[in-house]
Design brief:
The structure holds two protein chains of two kinds. Chain A is mainly β. Chain A is 0% helix and 51% strand. Chain A has no helices and eleven strands. By secondary structure, chain B is mostly beta strands. Helix content of chain B is 0%, strand content 54%. Chain B has no helices and eleven strands. Chain B has strands at 5-7, 10-14, 19-24, 29-37, 44-49, 55-58, 61-65, 71-76, 85-93, 103-104, 108-113. In chain B, strand 4 (29-37) and strand 5 form a beta hairpin. Chain B is globular. The chains are: A mainly beta, B mainly beta. Chain A binds chain B through residues 4, 31, 35, 40-45, 48, 50, 58-59, 90, 92, 98-107, and chain B through 1, 31, 33, 35, 40-45, 48, 88, 90, 92, 100-102, 104-107.
Chain lengths: 113, 114
C-alpha cells in the first residue's frame, strides 16, 4: 500500500491563480481531511469528507473548495490564490472502525507570491 | 472552537534522559491522540487513547488520558537522537454528535543532544 499520496510536493503560484492539490489513498478509508500547517499554529482543518459525495467545512474553509467523487480521491482547489494561503497542506484519511486515527500524506508546500 | 494548550513549546534534552510533555483543555475530550512529525514529513500517529485514565505504551513512549478528560500526557523514556521532531497532541471534543473533527495542539519541538 502507498498509503496517502499528495501531489505536487512543492508549488509556487502568483496571486489570483487557481490550482488543485491532489490527494489519494489506497486504504479504502471513508474519512478524508485537508489541513494547513503554519508556523506556530499547529494543524487547522480546512475541509473534510465522511464518504464519497459528502463534504463539510472545517475551521478555515474560506478560499478553498473540495469534492469527493470517489472513495480514493479528495482534491483541494484554491479558487484565487492569495499570499495568506502560503502554507504546508496535509491530506489525511482514516477508516470507519478508527475514524480518529488519521494517516497523513507527506504534504504540499505552497508559496503564493 | 476548542483550544488545546500544549507544553512545553520546545525542549532540549540530553540523550538518555526521559521526556514529559502534556496537553490541556478547558473542555472535555472523548479521544486523545499523539503524533510525531519529522522535518519535511507528515505527522505519524504514535498513540491513541479512548478512555479516561487509560495508560498506553508504544515502545519507549507512554501516554495517558487524564481522569478529568481535559488533559493528556506523553512520556518518552531513555531518549535517542531519532526522537527529535515535533510532537502534537490532538483531541476529539465531546460534542455528543459523533463528530469526526480533531483539534490539534501547536506542538512540542524536541531536540536531543547526543
Amino acid at each position: 500500500n502507498a498509503g496517502v499520496t499528495q501531489t505536487p510536493k512543492f508549488q509556487v503560484l502568483k496571486t489570483g491563480q487557481s490550482m488543485t492539490l491532489q490527494c489519494a489513498q489506497d486504504m479504502n478509508h471513508e474519512y478524508m481531511s485537508w489541513y494547513r500547517q503554519d508556523p506556530g499554529m499547529g494543524l487547522r482543518l480546512i475541509h473534510y469528507s465522511v464518504g464519497a459525495g459528502i463534504t463539510d467545512q472545517g475551521e478555515v474553509p474560506n478560499g478553498y473548495n473540495v469534492s469527493r467523487s470517489t472513495t480514493e480521491d479528495f482534491p483541494l482547489r484554491l479558487l484565487s490564490a492569495a499570499p495568506s494561503q502560503t502554507s504546508v497542506y496535509f491530506c489525511a484519511s482514516s477508516g470507519r472502525g478508527s475514524k480518529y486515527e488519521q494517516y497523513f500524506g507527506p504534504g504540499t508546500r505552497l508559496t503564493v507570491t | 472552537g476548542q483550544q488545546l494548550n500544549q507544553s512545553p513549546q520546545s525542549m532540549f534534552i540530553q540523550e538518555g534522559e526521559d521526556v514529559s510533555m502534556n496537553c490541556t483543555s478547558s473542555s472535555i475530550f472523548n479521544t486523545w491522540l499523539w503524533y510525531k512529525q519529522d522535518p519535511g514529513e507528515g505527522p505519524v500517529l504514535l498513540i491513541a487513547l479512548y478512555k479516561a485514565g487509560e495508560l498506553t505504551s508504544n515502545g519507549r513512549l507512554t501516554a495517558q488520558f487524564g481522569i478529568t478528560r481535559k488533559d493528556s500526557f506523553l512520556n518518552i523514556s531513555a531518549s535517542i537522537p531519532s526522537d527529535v521532531g515535533i510532537y502534537f497532541c490532538a483531541g476529539q471534543p465531546f460534542t455528543g454528535a459523533g463528530s469526526y473533527q480533531l483539534t490539534f495542539g501547536k506542538g512540542t519541538k524536541l531536540s536531543v543532544i547526543p
